[in-house]
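Researcher: Next sequence.
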Amino acid sequence: MNRFISFIAFITIALFLVACGNSEPDLTITSFTDELQDVIDIFEEEHDVDVELQIIPTENYTTTLQPALESGKGAPDVFTGEIVYLKQWIEQDYWETLSQDPYNVDEWEDDYIDYVWDLGINTSGDLKAVSWQTTPGGIYYRRSIAEEVFGTDEPEEIGEILSTMDGVMEAGEKLKEKNYRLFPDEGSIQEFAMGQDPQPWINEDNELILSEARLSYFDYAKELRDQKYTALAPAWSPAWYESFTGPINYNVGWDEIDEDADTSDQTEVFGVALPTWGLHSVLKESAEETAGDWAVTNGPTPYFEGGTWIGIYKESENKDLAFEFIKMLVNDAEFLEEWVSETGDVLSYLPVTEKIKDDFSDEFLGGQNHYTFFLEEAKKIDASIVTPYDQQIGDLFGTEVGNYVEGKATKEEAIEEFYDQVKNAFPDIIIPED
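Model: Next structure:
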């Protein structure tokens, strides 16, 4: 599997480099997904131009694109950035400053959700990148299971049940009594546990912050595992996807699904924590059989995950056309209203969201208006806690929580190893003293 992925990545990168050297489009755009292709098709038709979308796999995106941005050789006119490295890239000399003449995009500020806008601004106060979407998270759950176990499938009532970590655990017990599992795996509660006291991983004094809320994730994850409230189907594994459509065998792990496996140890999963894009990119793609049986509600705390920001390469020779593309993608009300009707993407652009939010519904979610829910969740997000270290440190932390849950280390040993790993990765960060 890994060799196959590596091969595909190699071919994609090769095609990217060839494209950079041989084609002469009017505009080149580089991204890590194909989500912009439909936008490009419309833009090409409206402007009578040729636009080339160059896609680099996510796992190779920064290492492939950064050298081009730094050298200028083969660099695109427009490129996207994901939240994982956005904070680093807006401090570099890659993107054009959009808050200066002739763009003056800072005049748009009041039309966008605060945290989305703020994340595109660097420490010098320059706006470098913008985004058309907002990505707060929630708990997607099966209505039929909710009705059977809790006597209701209404999002507000289920949200009340899941509004505290104690409530989450009580719900897990009730579900287990009827042979259901609360979540596919323990990672589903990570954001909710740590969100009880949201703080940056690294503070202004360059100190690592391991708050009590973050420490509580060790205990909550262990409780989920020990009480068998999850199906032990790791995120993004075959079993994780399979859990959206029906029964799966308990504790399959990363194994491929065996259609002939003994069904006596099967269970069904109630819900999964995902951000806005999980509805269309994950559930609708993988859970057609259970369409209409889903809804989305809150967990104990708000959170957000992912998101795509876009900007103009500073040395582009096609800046006027590049800016026209960005204006259409993030600031054209007519286009964005049509985009929402086609994709269901939750926008950051308030003139459109205010117009459509009250009458929005989604058949996959049993007709629920998830737009109003996610827009309210987006208001609770604080961009100031985002740091350039979040993904790498978060991954290191998640690994050590997993080692504790699996019994490979005590809690104290796991924390000490986490400190060591962070120190190795970021020698300048100040680690808490014992």
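Model: The longest strand covers residues 137-142. The longest helix spans residues 2-22.
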